[in-house]
């Protein structure tokens, strides 16, 4: 299909007012000049709960001469640029490529599988409606894909090497080390010769100790000592007897294994790798001792046939293993007997071939045909079936005679019709039929039945790089009515050159690691330091910064919660958003707000006292999912204010707090000597003095979390500068400021005696503790009580209300174990100090307070 | 889609004063490259590198931390979960060596108890500017029973060796737990052959 015919060409596009790119042209942008996108098909995938919108594109490469399907996920709809498409899988349309529709699928969920290169199939779904007019429908998609495969693979077949898929490497993720290693196999694979010795004998229920003679003519033939022996025995013991006594049977088997081991080639030491037995059918694998370490994944199994297909008097046993990089399988079978049972023999073969399974790690299994080299031996029981009336030829020792007889060999006939042993090969037979002899002689059956001689005992093979060196029957072993047979092979075993392999592996790992490191999601921030400059109490400040995604994938980011304070940032900061996703080539701004208010000032002051760098307000951790973390430092210099400072600290100042640097304030805060410049902080005095002259109910309620009144900051500056100007706010603002001044310091005014004072029974009782308070605290307390007392006396303040509000602030407990009657006891305590009970105390206090107030 | 391509995953951490060459060491190990321009790491970066040790593919996930002092409190929260820690100092910087003790204390406080540690004296190619002798490095390592090596990311000295040795030490620890499961390379399925024989028995 021509590209031009599929989507509007340049002339058409320019004719439109806004040249909109078609999906097909966007997809085409992802490929090189000699690669053509033939069609697109809308298909989605389901992962967990999620639908992943996708596109499949059929693409060909002119230089590679091959087709492939590239699977994209669509990151953004509608599609506007090629980087909204992410390649998630590549399917070369090679010999193993399959597009299969799921017959079990319901009508609503239309689905199909794509599969290639021995990978698991990938499932795709599609909607019945197309959203893009240029996308094809499912039938067209299937038809086109199948045509492509046909033109490439069913025509005059070029070898796989002539067609190359290397162009796909640019689009494939090297996620898989295995896949990469497989691709570069030729760089490190060498072939090593291994001599495999296969032998089979139907021993006709003769225990091996009856056999005094050597087995060497059968097992030690050939010049070169074999590396692997596969020896199959049949009719180890009469089946009925074998079943009656399993233990005895096992003993026979062991005897045979020992006997065989003693009769192997002299030049080499062997050990038994594995034996497997099904009733009287046994297969034993011996290997050269120093070959043993190169064998892994050894598995055995058996398939029973014979009576009811379960008895196991007939059937097959098999051993599978991996030698170096090659998989090998050996089968010993005893198929159905008697001249007429050709079909049964074929059936037995088929059953063994179909049902023999070897467990793999995980859910997979190996079948016989999954091996590189397969050897099938045994008493296959196929006979010589001469046409009726034909005379048996003369002497049996003549090679020509064998050739004539073999024309009528059932096995060869059946194999030629592919009714059994499809794909197997057998070497030339130059020995006499191995069945049936009078025991102890080389004479064919002279018994009643006069069975016709036959080549029952055979060795076949299947697989590459196998060369048969010898194939023979052994006449001089006469204990059975069968003659033993052996075949020697030279097999070229796929082997890893360890040095070369290590080199390739290192390169592959490096490439895979590099890919993973390079594909790490990344975002960049336009600044690593958010500078707020001077930050003042109760004055919010805002800074924005940008994060952008310039890596070729969507990136999710979030600010990490820090262990130290269970949140992403300190209380005085607010970050928005806390998390987001960024599409490719997109950016967004993040807002950081700083507000040092009633709720956060204490924490900030505490941090300033301990921090190395007093200007670091916080460090944010910007975390990219599956990627790195970026530390963003937020700095700002807090302008000290009286709010939040303790009464002791305020009594150490010699000039307005607003004139102090943060460092100086830090020194004042860290100072613990009981030396004060004034009896009580000037800020308290100024506020109380102002309030004393105001009328009306000023203390109605208090909540630290409420926003402060609009004049508050003017009052703050007035206090922080010890201003001589008239008070800049309303009486309510002054009341608000007084309550905050009392409430914000880390320690409540009456600490550390809050518990004792709450427990006290009388004013006198309480005063003993009040006297122990630090001078600044005691003076503030007394002055405050006096002030409140006068207000109550004047009738401006409701005693109960004022006691509740101030009681809670002054007796604020840092401990959590607040009792149920805590609030009423706070109230009760305060009432004792603001109600006039004893004129002497009041007048005394009044004298002090009055004097102060009039200063 | 991505299948597991490794047998074991080890998380390693690089710590040490700012400017001792942590990022360069990681860059040399992962990309086999070196750049002399100093770019302070502001955060936590990581790279992965797969190595083969004793026939096992081991994926090392190596975390590179910011060395600047103001980030110390934050970086310590990354210690947890690290199976190996490379503690790096600069042989041309006395202070960075003196701080080793402080870093070790940090590890004690914040890392897993059984974390494998290794001290690296980096920049060993700069012999003319050396102020910390190799013996002093060895002594402090011996004192704390920690592995020690002098390295140079620039001259590519001991970088690969250091990581492999640390990984091997972790492997020793983990393989102790694992060996019972996987005694040898060859597994012969005896169970299956028994099934074949017992099969004929049970039909009797």
From TrEMBL, chain A:
**Compartmental location:** Cytoplasmic vesicle, Phagosome membrane; Early endosome membrane
Q: Which SMART domains match?
A: IPPc, RhoGAP
Listed A to Z, the keywords are: Cytoplasmic vesicle, Endosome
Report if keyword Disulfide bond is assigned.
Answer: no
Q: Where is the Inositol polyphosphate-related phosphatase domain?
A: 192-497
| Pfam families cross-referenced by the UniProt entry | Exo_endo_phos2, INPP5B_PH, OCRL-like_ASH
In terms of InterPro entries, this protein maps to: Endo/exonu/phosph_ase_sf (IPR036691), Ig-like_fold (IPR013783), INPP5B_PH_dom (IPR031896), IP5 (IPR046985), IPPc (IPR000300), OCRL-1_2_ASH (IPR048869), Rho_GTPase_activation_prot (IPR008936), RhoGAP_dom (IPR000198)
Q: Can you give the residue ranges of the Rho-GAP domain?
A: 678-838
Question: What is the protein named?
Answer: Type II inositol 1,4,5-trisphosphate 5-phosphatase
- The record lists the organism as Drosophila arizonae (Fruit fly)
From TrEMBL, chain B:
Pfam families noted in UniProt? Ras
Checking SUPFAM superfamilies in the record gives: P-loop containing nucleoside triphosphate hydrolases
Keyword Nucleotide-binding in record: yes
Return the SMART domains for the record.
Answer: ARF (SM00177), RAB (SM00175), RAN (SM00176), RAS (SM00173), RHO (SM00174)
- Coiled-coil features, chain-numbered ranges: none
* Gene3D superfamilies named among the record's database cross-references: P-loop containing nucleotide triphosphate hydrolases
- In which family does this protein belong, per the annotation? Belongs to the small GTPase superfamily. Rab family.
Q: What PANTHER family does the record point to?
A: LD44762P
Record's protein name: Ras-related protein Rab-10
Q: Which organism is it from?
A: Drosophila arizonae (Fruit fly)
């Amino acid at each position: 299909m021509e590209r031009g015919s599929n989507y509007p060409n340049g002339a058409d596009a320019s004719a439109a007012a806004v040249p909109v790119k078609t999906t097909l042209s966007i997809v085409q942008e992802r490929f090189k000049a000699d690669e053509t996108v033939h069609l697109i098909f809308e298909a989605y995938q389901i992962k967990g709960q999620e639908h992943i919108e996708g596109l499949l594109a059929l693409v060909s490469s002119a230089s590679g001469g091959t087709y492939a399907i590239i699977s994209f996920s669509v990151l953004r709809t509608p599609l506007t640029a090629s980087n909204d498409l992410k390649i998630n899988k590549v399917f070369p349309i090679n010999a193993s490529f399959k597009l299969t529709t799921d017959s079990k699928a319901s009508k609503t969920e239309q689905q199909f599988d794509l599969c290639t290169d021995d990978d698991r199939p990938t499932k795709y779904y599609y909607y019945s409606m197309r959203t893009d007019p240029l996308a094809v429908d499912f039938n067209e998609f299937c038809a086109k894909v199948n045509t492509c495969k046909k033109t490439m693979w069913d025509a005059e077949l070029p070898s796989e090497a002539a067609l190359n898929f290397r162009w796909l490497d640019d689009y494939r993720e090297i996620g898989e080390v295995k896949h990469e290693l497989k691709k570069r196999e030729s760089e490190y694979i060498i072939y090593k010769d291994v001599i495999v010795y296969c032998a089979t004998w139907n021993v006709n229920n003769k225990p091996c100790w009856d056999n005094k003679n050597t087995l060497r003519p059968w097992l030690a033939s050939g010049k070169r000592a074999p590396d692997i022996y596969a020896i199959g025995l049949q009719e180890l013991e009469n089946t009925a007897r074998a079943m009656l006594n399993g233990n005895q049977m096992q003993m026979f088997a062991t005897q045979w294994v020992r006997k065989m081991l003693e009769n192997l080639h002299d030049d080499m030491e062997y050990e038994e790798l594995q034996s497997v037995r099904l009733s009287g059918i046994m297969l034993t694998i011996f290997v050269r001792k120093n070959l043993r370490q190169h064998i892994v994944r050894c598995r055995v199994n058996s398939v029973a046939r014979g009576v009811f297909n379960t008895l196991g008097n007939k059937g097959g046993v098999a051993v599978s293993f991996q030698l170096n990089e090659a998989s090998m399988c050996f089968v010993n079978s005893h198929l159905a007997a008697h001249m007429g049972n050709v079909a049964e023999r074929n059936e037995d073969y088929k059953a063994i071939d179909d049902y023999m399974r070897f467990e793999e790690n995980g859910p997979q299994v190996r079948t016989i045909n999954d091996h590189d080299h397969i050897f099938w031996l045994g008493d296959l029981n196929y006979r010589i079936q001469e046409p009726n009336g034909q005379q048996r030829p003369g002497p049996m020792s003549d090679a020509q005679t064998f050739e004539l007889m073999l024309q009528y060999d059932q096995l060869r006939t059946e194999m030629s019709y592919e009714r059994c042993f499809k794909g197997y090969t057998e070497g030339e037979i130059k020995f006499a039929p191995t069945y049936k002899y009078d025991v102890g002689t080389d004479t064919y059956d002279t018994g009643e039945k006069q069975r016709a001689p036959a080549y029952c005992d055979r060795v076949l093979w299947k697989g590459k790089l196998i060369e048969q060196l010898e194939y023979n029957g052994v006449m001089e072993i006469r204990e059975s009515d069968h003659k033993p047979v052996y075949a020697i092979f030279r097999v070229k075993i796929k082997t890893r050159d360890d040095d070369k392999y290590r080199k390739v592996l290192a390169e592959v790992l490096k490439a895979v690691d590099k890919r993973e490191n390079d594909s790490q999601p990344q975002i960049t921030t336009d600044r690593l330091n958010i500078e707020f400059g001077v930050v003042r109490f109760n004055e919010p400040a805002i800074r924005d910064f940008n994060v952008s995604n310039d890596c070729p994938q969507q990136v999710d980011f979030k600010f990490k919660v820090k262990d130290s304070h269970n949140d992403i940032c300190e209380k005085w900061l607010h970050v928005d958003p806390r998390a987001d996703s960024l599409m490719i080539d997109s950016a967004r701004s993040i807002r950081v707000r700083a507000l040092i208010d009633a709720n956060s000032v204490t924490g900030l002051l505490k941090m300033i006292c301990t921090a190395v760098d007093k200007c670091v307000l916080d460090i944010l951790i910007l975390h990219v999912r599956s990627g790195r973390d970026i530390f963003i430092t937020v700095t700002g210099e807090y302008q000290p204010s009286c709010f939040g400072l303790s009464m002791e600290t305020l009594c150490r100042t010699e000039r307005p707090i607003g004139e102090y640097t943060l460092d100086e304030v830090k020194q004042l805060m860290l100072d613990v000597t009981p030396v004060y410049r004034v009896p009580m902080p000037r800020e308290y005095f100024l506020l109380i003095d102002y309030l004393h002259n105001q009328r009306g109910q000023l203390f109605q309620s208090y909540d630290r979390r409420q926003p402060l009144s609009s004049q508050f900051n003017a009052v703050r500056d007035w206090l922080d500068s010890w201003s001589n100007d008239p008070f800049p706010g309303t009486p309510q603002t002054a009341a608000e400021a007084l309550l905050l001044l009392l409430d914000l310091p880390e320690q409540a005014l009456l600490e550390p005696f809050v518990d004792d004072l709450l427990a006290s029974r009388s004013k006198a009782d309480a005063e003993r503790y009040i006297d122990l308070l630090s001078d600044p605290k005691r003076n503030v307390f007394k002055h405050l009580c006096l002030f409140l007392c006068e207000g109550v006396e004047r009738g401006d303040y409701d005693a109960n209300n004022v006691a509740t509000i101030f009681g809670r602030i002054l007796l604020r407990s840092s401990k959590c174990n607040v009792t149920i009657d805590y609030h009423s006891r706070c109230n009760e305590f305060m009432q004792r100090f603001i109600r006039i009970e004893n004129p002497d105390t009041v007048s005394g206090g009044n004298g002090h307070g009055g004097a102060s107030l009039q200063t | 889609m991505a299948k597991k391509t490794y047998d074991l995953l080890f998380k390693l951490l690089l710590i040490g004063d700012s400017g001792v060459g942590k990022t360069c060491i990681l860059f040399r190990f992962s990309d086999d490259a070196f750049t002399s321009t100093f770019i302070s790491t502001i955060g936590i970066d990581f790279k992965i590198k797969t190595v083969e040790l004793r026939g096992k593919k081991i994926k090392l996930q190596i975390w590179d931390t910011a060395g600047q002092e103001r980030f110390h409190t934050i970086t310590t929260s990354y210690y947890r979960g690290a199976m190996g820690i490379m503690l790096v100092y600069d042989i041309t910087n006395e202070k960075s060596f003196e701080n080793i003790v402080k870093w070790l204390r940090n590890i004690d406080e914040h890392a897993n108890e059984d974390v494998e540690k290794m001290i690296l004296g980096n920049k060993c190619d700069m012999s003319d500017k050396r102020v910390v002798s190799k013996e002093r490095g060895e002594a402090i390592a011996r004192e704390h029973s920690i592995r020690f090596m002098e390295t140079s990311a620039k001259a590519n000295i001991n970088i690969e060796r250091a990581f492999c040795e640390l990984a091997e030490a972790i492997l020793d620890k983990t393989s102790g737990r694992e060996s019972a499961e996987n005694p040898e390379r060859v597994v012969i399925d005896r169970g299956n052959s028994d099934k074949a024989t017992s099969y004929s028995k049970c039909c009797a």
